[in-house]
From TrEMBL:
NCBIfam families: Na_K_ATPase_bet
One GO BP annotation of this record: potassium ion import across plasma membrane
GO molecular function: ATPase activator activity
Subcellular location: Apical cell membrane; Membrane
Record bears the keyword Cell membrane: yes
Source organism: Merluccius polli
Quaternary context: The ATPase pump is composed of two subunits: alpha (catalytic) and beta (regulatory). Interacts with alpha subunit ATP12A; this interaction is required for the formation of a functionally active pump and targeting at the plasma membrane. Interacts (via N-terminus) with alpha subunit ATP4A (via the P-domain).
Record membrane topology: Single-pass type II membrane protein
Keywords: Cell adhesion, Cell membrane, Disulfide bond, Glycoprotein, Hydrogen ion transport, Ion transport, Membrane, Potassium, Potassium transport, Signal-anchor, Transmembrane, Transmembrane helix, Transport
Pfam families reported for this sequence: Na_K-ATPase
PROSITE patterns given in the database record: ATPASE_NA_K_BETA_1 (PS00390)
Protein name (record): Sodium/potassium-transporting ATPase subunit beta
Length: 291
């Protein structure tokens, strides 16, 4: 103990350190003879080679046993999330605000929708003759040459006046703006287990009822056809497009309302407190311009 507490000068410490680095008395470098250093280096080199090989082998076995067409893990997503476009959101809530009197404001909205709909261009999609409206499109086998499965086309013309084909403003230059509702994909998910009702989008006005004259849906009745389900994953269906529903809201009065759009089907839950976007999307729609 006494030696530990003993005060030493800086010079002595430096000398000690120097002796530690190279001790000429017994020929050690950092406490070991060069010969020992060679052995220890060889030992560690071999150790790391073995560890790396074991690790690589484990990864290889894991990759080899995984099915590339199935998701690696999918334990949490039991019910899909729902999103609304244009995605010009506010700070915390989804706030879709535009000014129909200001061209700069409404072109921002319409170009957002136009960009979103780019993949839905009619001539970009290959025709699939096996899609039967109203029934799930199950595909056991890979039928196309590249080991993929077919996807039903969703031409944007199905969105009628909200397709942007006839009205490039999507209604944002006036008081009937279009919104697009999309449900996220989940591999193998079937939204409904019975034939009693269609899978469809239903929007309700949460507040500002007096400011909404009517709500229109495209395709008709806001239906998401069954032939777009199930989704088999990006590798199996590289050309898959989510079915969409356009909602056209006729704003009157103060031109502000809070809406909730829900995808209705018996397998889609929407009351999960922790997942506010599960099965539904709430948003405020506001037109600042005068009409
Ligand atoms: C909407 O745009 C018009 C025309 O640019 C402008 O006069 C008006 O102040 C804008 N309204 C709001 C609330 O920003
Ligand atoms: C698609 O239809 C053709 C005949 O029209 C049939 O030969 C083929 O098996 C069908 N493919 C699938 C995946 O159902
Ligand atoms: C198959 O893949 C090749 C190269 O990726 C592509 O050029 C070809 O169009 C694909 N065929 C089909 C039917 O998708
Ligand atoms: C909005 O744009 C469409 C298509 O360009 C046009 O037919 C319509 O008259 C415009 N509405 C207003 C209020 O300017
Ligand atoms: C739903 O309808 C399709 C065809 O209309 C039929 O093949 C299927 O068995 C029906 N499913 C149920 C659960 O009734
Ligand atoms: C939409 O939901 C509301 C409230 O749940 C309901 O009253 C209405 O009938 C539904 N409309 C459609 C078309 O399903």
């Amino acid at each position: 103990m006494a030696t530990l507490k003993e005060k030493r000068t800086c010079g002595q410490r430096c000398e000690d350190f120097g002796r530690f680095v190279w001790n000429s008395d017994n020929g050690t470098l950092m406490g070991r003879t060069p010969e020992k250093w060679v052995y220890i280096s060889l030992y560690y080199a071999a150790f790391y080679v073995v560890m790396t090989s074991l690790f690589s082998l484990a990864i290889w076995v894991l990759m080899y046993t995984l099915d590339p067409y199935a998701p690696d893990y999918q334990d949490r997503l039991l019910s899909p999330g729902v999103m609304v476009w244009p995605d010009k959101y506010g700070e915390e809530h989804v706030e879709i605000t535009y000014n129909s009197s200001d061209k700069h404001s409404w072109t921002k909205m319409s170009s957002c929708l136009d960009t979103f709909l780019k993949p839905y261009k009619d001539d970009k999609q290959t025709e699939c003759d096996n899609c039967t409206k109203g029934t799930y499109f199950f595909q056991k086998h890979f039928t196309t040459p590249n080991n993929t499965k077919k996807s039903c086309s969703f031409p944007r013309s199905l969105l009628g006046p909200c397709s942007g084909l006839h009205d490039s403003t999507f209604g944002y230059n006036c008081t009937m703006p279009c919104l697009i509702i999309k449900m996220n994909r989940i591999i193998g998910f079937l939204p409904s287990s019975n034939n009693k009702s269609q899978i469809h989008v239903n929007c309700t006005v949460l507040s500002g009822k007096e400011n909404v004259k009517k709500i229109e849906y495209y395709p008709d009745k806001g239906i998401m056809d069954r032939s777009y389900f199930p989704y088999y994953g990006n590798l199996a269906q590289p050309h898959y497009l989510n079915p969409l529903v356009a909602v056209r809201v006729d704003l009157v009065g103060k031109q502000q309302a809070k809406l909730q759009c829900r995808v209705v089907a018996d397998k889609i839950s929407y009351q999960n407190f922790h997942e506010p976007y599960e099965g539904k999307v709430d948003f405020t729609l506001t037109n600042l311009g005068n009409h």
